[in-house]
Specification:
Number of strands: 14
Largest sheet: 8 strands, mixed
Structural class: alpha/beta
Shape: elongated
Bound molecules: uridine-5'-diphosphate-xylopyranose
Number of domains: 2
CATH class of the largest domain: Alpha Beta
Radius of gyration: 24 Å
CATH topology of the largest domain: Rossmann fold
Length: 439
Protein backbone atom coordinates (compact mmCIF):
# COMPACT_ATOMS: atom_id res chain seq x y z
CA UNK A 1 0.00 0.00 0.00
CA UNK A 2 0.96 3.66 -0.29
CA UNK A 3 0.84 5.07 3.20
CA UNK A 4 1.62 8.49 4.62
CA UNK A 5 2.32 9.20 8.28
CA UNK A 6 1.53 12.77 9.35
CA UNK A 7 3.68 13.90 12.30
CA UNK A 8 7.05 12.17 12.74
CA UNK A 9 7.73 12.43 16.46
CA UNK A 10 8.17 9.36 18.62
CA UNK A 11 4.99 7.71 17.48
CA UNK A 12 5.00 8.78 13.84
CA UNK A 13 8.66 8.12 13.02
CA UNK A 14 8.47 4.66 14.58
CA UNK A 15 5.21 3.88 12.84
CA UNK A 16 6.52 5.04 9.44
CA UNK A 17 9.61 2.82 9.69
CA UNK A 18 7.54 -0.15 10.90
CA UNK A 19 4.99 0.21 8.09
CA UNK A 20 7.89 0.10 5.62
CA UNK A 21 9.14 -3.03 7.42
CA UNK A 22 5.70 -4.58 6.81
CA UNK A 23 6.32 -4.05 3.09
CA UNK A 24 4.41 -0.83 2.39
CA UNK A 25 5.62 2.27 0.58
CA UNK A 26 5.70 5.01 3.19
CA UNK A 27 6.03 8.78 3.14
CA UNK A 28 6.56 10.36 6.54
CA UNK A 29 5.50 14.00 6.79
CA UNK A 30 6.49 16.53 9.43
CA UNK A 31 6.27 20.32 9.41
CA UNK A 32 9.72 20.59 11.07
CA UNK A 33 12.26 20.86 8.22
CA UNK A 34 15.22 20.07 10.50
CA UNK A 35 13.56 16.89 11.74
CA UNK A 36 12.72 15.81 8.18
CA UNK A 37 16.28 16.45 6.98
CA UNK A 38 17.64 14.35 9.85
CA UNK A 39 15.13 11.54 9.22
CA UNK A 40 16.16 11.48 5.56
CA UNK A 41 19.71 10.88 6.91
CA UNK A 42 18.36 8.02 9.10
CA UNK A 43 18.56 10.03 12.30
CA UNK A 44 15.47 9.94 14.50
CA UNK A 45 14.96 13.08 16.63
CA UNK A 46 15.26 10.93 19.80
CA UNK A 47 16.99 7.74 20.83
CA UNK A 48 15.05 4.53 20.28
CA UNK A 49 16.88 1.22 20.15
CA UNK A 50 17.09 -0.03 16.53
CA UNK A 51 15.08 2.80 15.00
CA UNK A 52 17.87 4.60 13.14
CA UNK A 53 18.89 1.26 11.62
CA UNK A 54 15.35 0.44 10.56
CA UNK A 55 14.95 3.87 8.97
CA UNK A 56 18.31 3.46 7.18
CA UNK A 57 17.26 0.02 5.95
CA UNK A 58 14.10 1.35 4.32
CA UNK A 59 15.60 4.58 3.00
CA UNK A 60 17.91 2.16 1.17
CA UNK A 61 15.11 -0.16 -0.04
CA UNK A 62 13.30 2.95 -1.32
CA UNK A 63 10.20 2.08 0.73
CA UNK A 64 10.56 5.05 3.09
CA UNK A 65 11.20 8.75 2.78
CA UNK A 66 10.24 11.92 4.59
CA UNK A 67 8.84 15.27 3.45
CA UNK A 68 7.62 18.59 4.84
CA UNK A 69 4.85 18.85 2.25
CA UNK A 70 1.19 18.15 3.04
CA UNK A 71 0.45 18.19 -0.69
CA UNK A 72 3.02 15.43 -1.30
CA UNK A 73 1.62 13.34 1.53
CA UNK A 74 -1.95 13.77 0.25
CA UNK A 75 -0.92 12.84 -3.28
CA UNK A 76 1.17 9.85 -2.15
CA UNK A 77 -1.04 8.04 0.35
CA UNK A 78 -4.27 6.06 0.09
CA UNK A 79 -4.06 5.62 3.84
CA UNK A 80 -2.88 8.49 6.06
CA UNK A 81 -1.92 7.81 9.67
CA UNK A 82 -2.08 10.77 12.08
CA UNK A 83 0.73 10.74 14.65
CA UNK A 84 0.69 14.41 15.64
CA UNK A 85 1.39 15.13 19.33
CA UNK A 86 -1.39 16.07 21.76
CA UNK A 87 0.47 17.62 24.73
CA UNK A 88 -1.12 19.07 27.85
CA UNK A 89 -2.45 22.63 27.40
CA UNK A 90 -0.31 25.10 29.33
CA UNK A 91 -2.05 25.96 32.60
CA UNK A 92 -4.84 23.44 31.99
CA UNK A 93 -5.40 19.71 32.43
CA UNK A 94 -6.94 19.25 28.98
CA UNK A 95 -5.13 18.02 25.87
CA UNK A 96 -3.96 20.66 23.42
CA UNK A 97 -5.42 19.65 20.05
CA UNK A 98 -4.28 22.73 18.13
CA UNK A 99 -1.35 20.96 16.43
CA UNK A 100 -3.51 17.99 15.44
CA UNK A 101 -6.33 20.15 14.13
CA UNK A 102 -3.94 22.41 12.23
CA UNK A 103 -2.35 19.36 10.57
CA UNK A 104 -5.76 17.95 9.69
CA UNK A 105 -6.84 21.23 8.09
CA UNK A 106 -3.64 21.53 6.10
CA UNK A 107 -3.87 17.93 4.88
CA UNK A 108 -7.61 18.02 4.15
CA UNK A 109 -7.45 20.72 1.48
CA UNK A 110 -5.19 18.48 -0.64
CA UNK A 111 -7.33 15.32 -0.45
CA UNK A 112 -8.81 15.06 -3.94
CA UNK A 113 -9.51 11.30 -4.06
CA UNK A 114 -11.01 8.63 -1.84
CA UNK A 115 -8.70 7.81 1.05
CA UNK A 116 -8.61 6.70 4.66
CA UNK A 117 -7.40 8.69 7.64
CA UNK A 118 -6.35 6.57 10.63
CA UNK A 119 -5.81 8.55 13.82
CA UNK A 120 -3.13 7.18 16.13
CA UNK A 121 -2.60 10.15 18.46
CA UNK A 122 -4.00 9.89 21.99
CA UNK A 123 -7.08 12.12 21.96
CA UNK A 124 -10.09 12.99 24.09
CA UNK A 125 -13.05 10.76 23.18
CA UNK A 126 -15.13 12.49 20.50
CA UNK A 127 -12.15 13.88 18.59
CA UNK A 128 -12.45 11.42 15.68
CA UNK A 129 -16.05 12.50 15.08
CA UNK A 130 -14.97 16.15 15.10
CA UNK A 131 -12.06 15.51 12.71
CA UNK A 132 -14.45 13.65 10.37
CA UNK A 133 -16.53 16.85 10.12
CA UNK A 134 -13.41 18.89 9.28
CA UNK A 135 -12.35 16.47 6.53
CA UNK A 136 -15.83 16.38 5.02
CA UNK A 137 -16.02 20.17 5.08
CA UNK A 138 -12.53 20.98 3.73
CA UNK A 139 -11.46 18.06 1.51
CA UNK A 140 -12.29 18.33 -2.20
CA UNK A 141 -13.07 14.56 -1.99
CA UNK A 142 -15.66 15.30 0.77
CA UNK A 143 -17.33 12.11 2.10
CA UNK A 144 -14.90 9.91 0.19
CA UNK A 145 -12.45 10.66 3.00
CA UNK A 146 -13.15 8.07 5.73
CA UNK A 147 -11.85 8.47 9.27
CA UNK A 148 -10.84 5.50 11.44
CA UNK A 149 -9.18 5.35 14.85
CA UNK A 150 -6.25 3.03 15.55
CA UNK A 151 -4.67 3.83 18.93
CA UNK A 152 -1.00 3.11 19.51
CA UNK A 153 0.25 1.46 22.70
CA UNK A 154 4.01 1.60 22.17
CA UNK A 155 6.35 2.06 25.10
CA UNK A 156 9.50 4.08 24.60
CA UNK A 157 12.57 1.81 24.47
CA UNK A 158 10.35 -1.04 23.15
CA UNK A 159 8.75 1.01 20.38
CA UNK A 160 9.63 -1.18 17.38
CA UNK A 161 8.69 -4.47 19.02
CA UNK A 162 5.48 -2.94 20.39
CA UNK A 163 4.54 -1.75 16.88
CA UNK A 164 5.47 -4.91 14.97
CA UNK A 165 4.13 -7.39 17.50
CA UNK A 166 1.62 -5.51 19.66
CA UNK A 167 -0.53 -7.17 22.34
CA UNK A 168 -3.57 -6.20 20.32
CA UNK A 169 -4.70 -4.15 17.37
CA UNK A 170 -7.64 -1.85 17.97
CA UNK A 171 -9.48 -0.47 14.96
CA UNK A 172 -12.43 1.91 15.30
CA UNK A 173 -14.78 2.79 12.43
CA UNK A 174 -17.93 4.79 11.95
CA UNK A 175 -19.31 1.99 9.75
CA UNK A 176 -18.36 -1.66 9.74
CA UNK A 177 -17.34 -3.26 6.44
CA UNK A 178 -16.34 0.14 5.09
CA UNK A 179 -13.55 1.10 2.71
CA UNK A 180 -11.65 2.23 5.84
CA UNK A 181 -11.90 -1.20 7.48
CA UNK A 182 -10.69 -2.93 4.31
CA UNK A 183 -7.73 -0.53 4.06
CA UNK A 184 -6.62 -1.00 7.66
CA UNK A 185 -7.04 -4.78 7.56
CA UNK A 186 -4.87 -4.70 4.45
CA UNK A 187 -2.24 -2.45 6.05
CA UNK A 188 -1.97 -4.75 9.07
CA UNK A 189 -2.44 -8.03 7.17
CA UNK A 190 0.95 -9.48 8.28
CA UNK A 191 0.08 -8.82 11.95
CA UNK A 192 -3.51 -10.09 11.65
CA UNK A 193 -2.32 -13.22 9.82
CA UNK A 194 0.23 -13.78 12.57
CA UNK A 195 -2.63 -14.02 15.06
CA UNK A 196 -2.30 -10.66 16.86
CA UNK A 197 -5.66 -10.17 18.61
CA UNK A 198 -7.84 -7.75 16.65
CA UNK A 199 -10.59 -5.68 18.23
CA UNK A 200 -12.84 -3.94 15.73
CA UNK A 201 -15.13 -1.37 17.27
CA UNK A 202 -16.64 2.11 16.91
CA UNK A 203 -14.66 5.35 16.92
CA UNK A 204 -15.43 6.38 20.52
CA UNK A 205 -14.49 2.99 21.97
CA UNK A 206 -11.24 2.94 20.03
CA UNK A 207 -10.34 6.39 21.36
CA UNK A 208 -11.24 5.36 24.89
CA UNK A 209 -9.21 2.14 24.84
CA UNK A 210 -6.02 4.18 24.81
CA UNK A 211 -6.97 6.66 27.52
CA UNK A 212 -8.44 3.93 29.70
CA UNK A 213 -5.32 1.77 29.28
CA UNK A 214 -3.03 4.60 30.35
CA UNK A 215 -5.34 5.47 33.27
CA UNK A 216 -5.17 1.86 34.43
CA UNK A 217 -1.37 1.66 34.10
CA UNK A 218 -0.95 4.92 36.03
CA UNK A 219 -3.34 3.67 38.72
CA UNK A 220 -1.38 0.45 39.13
CA UNK A 221 1.86 2.37 39.63
CA UNK A 222 0.27 4.81 42.07
CA UNK A 223 -1.36 1.95 43.95
CA UNK A 224 1.97 0.35 44.75
CA UNK A 225 3.49 3.75 45.55
CA UNK A 226 0.61 4.40 47.97
CA UNK A 227 1.52 1.07 49.58
CA UNK A 228 5.10 2.38 49.78
CA UNK A 229 3.82 5.31 51.85
CA UNK A 230 2.15 2.85 54.23
CA UNK A 231 5.31 0.73 54.31
CA UNK A 232 7.37 3.78 55.23
CA UNK A 233 5.08 4.37 58.21
CA UNK A 234 5.24 0.76 59.39
CA UNK A 235 8.74 -0.51 58.66
CA UNK A 236 7.45 -2.89 55.96
CA UNK A 237 9.23 -3.41 52.61
CA UNK A 238 7.23 -2.39 49.54
CA UNK A 239 9.48 -4.35 47.16
CA UNK A 240 8.75 -7.60 48.94
CA UNK A 241 5.11 -6.61 49.19
CA UNK A 242 4.97 -6.03 45.41
CA UNK A 243 6.72 -9.32 44.77
CA UNK A 244 4.13 -11.17 46.82
CA UNK A 245 1.13 -9.27 45.39
CA UNK A 246 2.05 -9.63 41.74
CA UNK A 247 2.26 -13.44 41.96
CA UNK A 248 -1.53 -13.35 41.94
CA UNK A 249 -2.47 -13.49 38.24
CA UNK A 250 -5.49 -11.29 38.93
CA UNK A 251 -3.08 -8.54 40.00
CA UNK A 252 -0.45 -9.28 37.37
CA UNK A 253 3.31 -9.26 37.39
CA UNK A 254 4.03 -6.23 35.23
CA UNK A 255 3.82 -2.48 35.66
CA UNK A 256 3.66 -2.37 39.43
CA UNK A 257 7.26 -1.58 40.31
CA UNK A 258 7.36 0.81 43.25
CA UNK A 259 9.67 3.80 43.02
CA UNK A 260 9.65 7.46 42.15
CA UNK A 261 6.47 7.14 40.10
CA UNK A 262 5.60 7.67 36.48
CA UNK A 263 6.73 10.42 34.14
CA UNK A 264 7.18 10.69 30.39
CA UNK A 265 5.25 12.16 27.51
CA UNK A 266 2.15 9.99 28.02
CA UNK A 267 0.88 8.84 31.41
CA UNK A 268 0.90 12.20 33.30
CA UNK A 269 -0.73 14.24 30.55
CA UNK A 270 -3.11 11.48 29.50
CA UNK A 271 -4.69 10.99 32.93
CA UNK A 272 -5.14 14.75 33.23
CA UNK A 273 -6.69 15.05 29.77
CA UNK A 274 -8.99 12.13 30.61
CA UNK A 275 -10.20 13.93 33.76
CA UNK A 276 -10.74 17.15 31.80
CA UNK A 277 -12.77 15.30 29.17
CA UNK A 278 -14.84 13.48 31.81
CA UNK A 279 -15.61 16.89 33.30
CA UNK A 280 -16.87 18.15 29.92
CA UNK A 281 -19.00 15.03 29.55
CA UNK A 282 -20.55 15.48 33.02
CA UNK A 283 -19.04 12.24 34.37
CA UNK A 284 -16.21 13.82 36.36
CA UNK A 285 -17.11 11.70 39.43
CA UNK A 286 -16.22 8.55 37.50
CA UNK A 287 -12.61 9.69 37.32
CA UNK A 288 -12.16 11.52 40.63
CA UNK A 289 -9.83 8.71 41.69
CA UNK A 290 -7.36 9.80 38.99
CA UNK A 291 -6.75 12.99 40.98
CA UNK A 292 -5.45 10.78 43.77
CA UNK A 293 -3.41 8.74 41.30
CA UNK A 294 -1.78 11.97 40.12
CA UNK A 295 -1.32 13.26 43.70
CA UNK A 296 0.27 10.01 44.95
CA UNK A 297 2.61 10.15 41.98
CA UNK A 298 3.85 13.68 42.64
CA UNK A 299 4.03 13.06 46.39
CA UNK A 300 6.85 10.55 45.79
CA UNK A 301 8.95 13.44 44.51
CA UNK A 302 8.40 15.63 47.56
CA UNK A 303 9.02 12.58 49.77
CA UNK A 304 12.49 12.23 48.26
CA UNK A 305 13.23 15.86 49.09
CA UNK A 306 11.99 15.27 52.64
CA UNK A 307 14.21 12.16 52.94
CA UNK A 308 17.15 14.14 51.55
CA UNK A 309 16.61 16.74 54.27
CA UNK A 310 16.41 14.07 56.99
CA UNK A 311 19.40 12.20 55.69
CA UNK A 312 21.51 15.32 55.27
CA UNK A 313 20.57 16.32 58.81
CA UNK A 314 20.52 20.06 58.22
CA UNK A 315 19.33 22.64 55.72
CA UNK A 316 19.83 21.69 52.08
CA UNK A 317 21.17 25.14 51.31
CA UNK A 318 24.68 24.65 49.97
CA UNK A 319 24.46 20.83 50.25
CA UNK A 320 26.33 19.05 47.47
CA UNK A 321 23.97 16.46 46.04
CA UNK A 322 24.57 14.07 43.14
CA UNK A 323 21.64 12.67 41.20
CA UNK A 324 21.93 9.48 39.17
CA UNK A 325 19.38 9.61 36.38
CA UNK A 326 17.74 12.32 34.30
CA UNK A 327 15.64 10.35 31.78
CA UNK A 328 12.03 9.62 32.79
CA UNK A 329 12.92 5.92 32.67
CA UNK A 330 15.98 3.88 31.61
CA UNK A 331 17.00 3.18 27.98
CA UNK A 332 15.63 6.45 26.63
CA UNK A 333 16.94 10.01 26.32
CA UNK A 334 13.45 11.40 26.89
CA UNK A 335 13.21 13.81 29.83
CA UNK A 336 9.57 14.87 29.45
CA UNK A 337 7.94 14.99 32.91
CA UNK A 338 11.00 13.23 34.31
CA UNK A 339 10.55 12.54 38.04
CA UNK A 340 14.36 12.61 38.46
CA UNK A 341 14.71 16.10 36.99
CA UNK A 342 11.70 17.31 38.93
CA UNK A 343 13.48 16.26 42.13
CA UNK A 344 16.72 17.87 40.87
CA UNK A 345 14.83 21.14 40.46
CA UNK A 346 13.16 20.93 43.87
CA UNK A 347 16.57 20.42 45.48
CA UNK A 348 18.07 23.25 43.43
CA UNK A 349 15.25 25.52 44.62
CA UNK A 350 16.02 24.46 48.20
CA UNK A 351 19.56 25.80 47.69
CA UNK A 352 21.41 22.51 47.07
CA UNK A 353 24.28 22.34 44.59
CA UNK A 354 23.01 19.59 42.29
CA UNK A 355 25.11 17.52 39.86
CA UNK A 356 23.26 15.17 37.53
CA UNK A 357 24.51 12.09 35.69
CA UNK A 358 22.61 10.12 33.05
CA UNK A 359 23.99 7.69 30.46
CA UNK A 360 21.86 9.07 27.63
CA UNK A 361 19.74 12.08 28.52
CA UNK A 362 22.35 14.66 29.55
CA UNK A 363 22.14 16.74 26.35
CA UNK A 364 18.38 17.07 26.67
CA UNK A 365 18.63 17.81 30.39
CA UNK A 366 21.30 20.47 29.83
CA UNK A 367 19.14 22.25 27.27
CA UNK A 368 16.07 22.22 29.52
CA UNK A 369 17.81 23.04 32.83
CA UNK A 370 21.08 24.83 32.07
CA UNK A 371 21.53 25.96 35.68
CA UNK A 372 22.09 22.40 37.04
CA UNK A 373 25.57 20.81 36.95
CA UNK A 374 26.17 17.77 34.78
CA UNK A 375 28.81 15.06 34.59
CA UNK A 376 28.98 12.26 32.06
CA UNK A 377 30.65 9.76 34.38
CA UNK A 378 28.60 8.30 37.25
CA UNK A 379 31.56 8.09 39.63
CA UNK A 380 33.09 11.48 38.75
CA UNK A 381 29.66 13.04 39.29
CA UNK A 382 29.84 12.06 42.98
CA UNK A 383 33.18 13.82 43.68
CA UNK A 384 32.80 15.63 47.01
CA UNK A 385 29.06 14.82 47.26
CA UNK A 386 27.37 14.84 50.63
CA UNK A 387 24.39 12.86 49.35
CA UNK A 388 23.75 10.57 46.37
CA UNK A 389 20.22 10.06 45.01
CA UNK A 390 19.46 7.14 42.69
CA UNK A 391 16.44 8.36 40.73
CA UNK A 392 16.35 6.53 37.34
CA UNK A 393 17.15 2.82 37.43
CA UNK A 394 19.78 2.49 34.67
CA UNK A 395 21.70 -0.82 34.74
CA UNK A 396 24.91 1.26 34.59
CA UNK A 397 24.48 2.14 38.26
CA UNK A 398 24.47 -1.53 39.25
CA UNK A 399 28.04 -1.77 37.92
CA UNK A 400 29.40 1.00 40.16
CA UNK A 401 31.34 -0.41 43.12
CA UNK A 402 30.07 1.28 46.33
CA UNK A 403 33.39 0.49 48.04
CA UNK A 404 35.41 2.50 45.49
CA UNK A 405 32.82 5.23 45.29
CA UNK A 406 33.13 5.82 49.00
CA UNK A 407 36.57 7.36 48.49
CA UNK A 408 35.13 9.97 46.10
CA UNK A 409 32.31 11.37 48.20
CA UNK A 410 32.41 13.74 51.16
CA UNK A 411 29.77 11.66 53.00
CA UNK A 412 28.77 8.10 52.08
CA UNK A 413 25.05 8.67 52.11
CA UNK A 414 22.66 7.31 49.46
CA UNK A 415 18.90 7.34 48.87
CA UNK A 416 17.64 4.72 46.44
CA UNK A 417 14.33 5.90 45.02
CA UNK A 418 13.96 2.98 42.62
CA UNK A 419 14.98 0.22 44.99
CA UNK A 420 17.26 -1.54 42.52
CA UNK A 421 20.60 -1.02 44.28
CA UNK A 422 21.63 -3.82 46.63
CA UNK A 423 21.21 -2.43 50.17
CA UNK A 424 23.53 -5.06 51.71
CA UNK A 425 26.55 -4.24 49.52
CA UNK A 426 26.12 -0.47 49.96
CA UNK A 427 25.82 -0.83 53.73
CA UNK A 428 28.79 -3.21 53.83
CA UNK A 429 30.82 -0.57 52.03
CA UNK A 430 30.02 1.88 54.82
CA UNK A 431 27.19 3.83 53.21
CA UNK A 432 24.12 5.08 55.00
CA UNK A 433 21.50 3.56 52.68
CA UNK A 434 17.85 4.54 52.61
CA UNK A 435 15.20 3.69 50.05
CA UNK A 436 11.66 4.72 49.29
CA UNK A 437 9.23 2.21 50.79
CA UNK A 438 11.89 0.22 52.63
CA UNK A 439 12.92 0.14 56.26
C1 LIG B 1 3.40 4.50 28.40
C2 LIG B 1 2.49 3.26 28.21
O1 LIG B 1 3.12 2.11 28.78
C3 LIG B 1 2.23 3.03 26.74
O2 LIG B 1 1.36 1.92 26.57
C4 LIG B 1 1.63 4.27 26.18
O3 LIG B 1 1.37 4.10 24.81
C5 LIG B 1 2.53 5.47 26.40
O4 LIG B 1 2.80 5.61 27.79
P1 LIG B 1 6.01 4.92 28.27
O5 LIG B 1 5.70 6.30 28.77
O6 LIG B 1 6.99 4.74 27.16
O7 LIG B 1 4.67 4.19 27.82
O8 LIG B 1 6.62 4.12 29.50
P2 LIG B 1 6.26 3.01 30.56
O9 LIG B 1 7.29 1.96 30.41
O10 LIG B 1 4.82 2.62 30.59
O11 LIG B 1 6.62 3.83 31.91
C6 LIG B 1 5.95 5.04 32.23
C7 LIG B 1 6.48 5.58 33.53
O12 LIG B 1 6.05 4.78 34.61
C8 LIG B 1 8.00 5.66 33.64
O13 LIG B 1 8.35 6.86 34.29
C9 LIG B 1 8.37 4.46 34.48
O14 LIG B 1 9.56 4.67 35.21
C10 LIG B 1 7.16 4.38 35.41
N1 LIG B 1 6.88 3.01 35.87
C11 LIG B 1 6.54 2.05 34.97
C12 LIG B 1 6.91 2.73 37.23
O15 LIG B 1 7.21 3.61 38.04
N2 LIG B 1 6.61 1.47 37.65
C13 LIG B 1 6.27 0.48 36.77
O16 LIG B 1 6.02 -0.64 37.22
C14 LIG B 1 6.23 0.77 35.40
Amino acid sequence: MHISVIGCGYLGATHAACMAELGHHVLGMDADAGRVAALNQAQAPFFERGLDDLIAKHLATGKLRFTTSYADAAEFGDLHFLGVGTPQKPGDMAADLTHLEAAVRRLAVHLTRACVIAGKSTVPVGTAARLTEIFHELAPARDAVEVAWNPEFLRESHAIADTLSPDRLVLGFEDRHSFAEAALRNAYAPLINAGIPLIVTDLATAELVKTAANAFLATKISFINAMAEVCEATGADVHQLADALTRDPRIGALGMRPGLGFGGGCLPKDIRAFMARADELGVDQALTFLREVDAINTRRRSRIVQLAREQHGSTLSGARITIWGAAFKPRTDDIRESPALDVANLLHEAGAVVTVHDPMALDNARKAFPYLNYDDDPADATEGAELLLHLTEWDDYLDVDPERLRARVARPSVIDARGTLDPASWRRAGWTYRALGRP
